[in-house]
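ARCHIVE CARD
SHELF: 3
SLOT: left
DATA:
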Amino acid sequence: MHQPESKNEEMETVIKVKDPDDTVLSQPQNESTVNKETNTYKRNDISSNKLSKKVFRSQESMFIELMEIGHVETVYNLFIAMFILYLSYNILDDYFVKGRITLASETFHKGFKNIYYAFVMWLILQLYTFGIYYPLKLWANIRNKLQHHEYLQLAWSAFWLLTYIISIGLFFYITAKVCLVYDIRYASSLALLLDATRLLMKQHAFVRVSCARVLSSGKTFAETIENVEKPNGKQTLDNNGDYLGIPPFRKYLYYLFAPTLLYRDNYPRTTHIRWKFVALRFMECLAFVFLFAIVFENQLRPILIDFGEKKITPELIVRTYFAILPPVVLMLLSFVFFLLHSWNNLTAELLKFADRRFHGDWWTSTNYFQFFRRWNTVVGDWLYEYIFRDFYMHINPSKAAATFALYIVSAIVHEYIISISLRLLFPVMTFLYIVGGMILVHVTTWIPKNIGNLNFCLCFLIGVTLSFGSYPIEYYAKENCPKEQYTSWSDLLIPHMWACRN
């Protein structure tokens, strides 16, 4: 969740944004605005129970700002040097031991099995996401024609609401079914499911915002487009510069590719593309792919390859967890750097998207409440605005209940992605996320700040190893020690690492 710390500071700001048509809009706002670590929020009116709403602004990525400090740049260069030496070692080791240079080719081969099926499914999901704009247009137009028939209008909207809910379920189900039926494995499956989830979150954000505008303004899609094309087209904009009805398709199209999950009609834009910056971010993405594969094949896999062949004891489990801690943490941190820094900055630069705060300085957190707010602001902002905020305002005005709903949704989606990718029913992520996460959020706030960061780092390393390390352990236990049958619920729910103890 992302809430401003300063609640009483009143200031007048002028937010200048540039839309995809290069039209500069200047929007004065006499609202409470606060810059909290990585995000900017404005205070809503009393009717929204004083919940904040994010306002985008031009700002560089956290790592890019830190790189301006010479010492941090030296640390970055040190990591690059270590990566070059690590890669060189693996190349030489492959050449002298195996007689050929593999560069983790076995991991690539198994991880990207049937990638062409994943690509075709990804194209279908993209087309579907583009296409939802037109049913939304149809709903708005017919609803407007039924404005004098209240019950028909209500039935029409209820029908489309039910259709929308069913489509969300089918979106998840069909994507998972394709991964299972066509045996799309590991990396390909993970990439497909992650992007499917991203597309679904974007769809929901756009539908949620557009429907709210139609219901509040009564403007139809046709009326909005007709007025936009007129010389005085800005009459369809409200005081904040937002469209009163469904926005034009070009706005939706830009949003689908922008590195954000929150829909706005306009975002802060840069004036040009820095191609050298793009090249550096692309090289970082490429380096991550090889680093992740090599660490898995040469450091993690040798530890777990025979797990389950012998009797699994508590002593073996403890030794295994401590042994996999360094590679698991390295793989997770490199994935976070790749996704939240390299990839998002790459796409942001190509699209001239100016708000680059995709994460905060989560490594300085003194408790888990700070960590969850700073860890991944792209997903965190979506969860806050469309899960926490909507639950709080429309279902139950309890922050505790809204927070619990947020944790539930996040845990289920994480478990869905990991379970389908690895073909495992092993809900350790759900347990640790809901139970462990909520406990740590409250407990760690009591710890003094002078030792809070040390405690956070310790809990973070343990949590990462338990949550992300348990899945490869269970995977190899399943491979080496399969159960005699999978007919009952107990056969599916009991972990293989537990069943192999007997």
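SLOT: right
DATA:
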Amino acid sequence: MELDGSSVSVEQVSVLGLVNFGHFTSMRVEGRAGVRGLSLHLDRLTQDCRSVFDVDLDPEYVRGLVRHALQDSDDVVVVRVTVFDPTLELGKPGADAEPHVLVTKRKAPQTPLAPLSLQSAAYARDLPKVKHVGLFGALYQRRDAQRNGYDDVLFTTAEGTVTEAATSNVAFIDAAGQLVWPQADVLPGTTMRLVNQARDEDVVAQPITLAQVPEFIGAVVTNAAVGVRVVGRIDDTRWPIEHEIVDIIRKQYEAIPPERI
């Protein structure tokens, strides 16, 4: 854990828990090879910094901090870059901000992971276009799903229109083998964007309701830590855990060359 390239004090990092105001991105680092979609992650950080703090963030500065934290390691890890102001007060979030950059890392999960089961829940994240640190609501919904025997949660609007999973985008596969993304107010995920770039077909997005879910022949979730993961179940709808189209999508994504940090 490093803050602006140096060790972190408890006082500096405690504001993340006590004030809980900031934004982040998480990326899978494939050792020295780098990160798929690194430029997209850096773009996200700069855009979100303007949205959250009204401050311009230097992407090359962030890149250097990530490189410093990794120390030219061969390990495959998930790096999280969190942008926050350690001096921000709970009662004065409108003060001029001086964002700092916290870089943390953890061991990356081995992929592909087992098929995912999702419980639907009517819920919308605050400011869904921003990848912010306000995760209580999403984690509460994930906890409820897991206590009911599912792996994770699938968010919908109050009217039952599918949006996203707790920390992933979701897409469905129609009878023609086309990948269909929900047309909804969701976080524009980096992995989602890379999958769309890798596939030799038009990007399709349309409103999808829970009632329409059984009409599809499969589903996937995407995020940077695990790439493309097959969905085996949403509520009472089940799909085969082995899926040729999902294998193709995953291989297309994994064929994208990482960008050197």
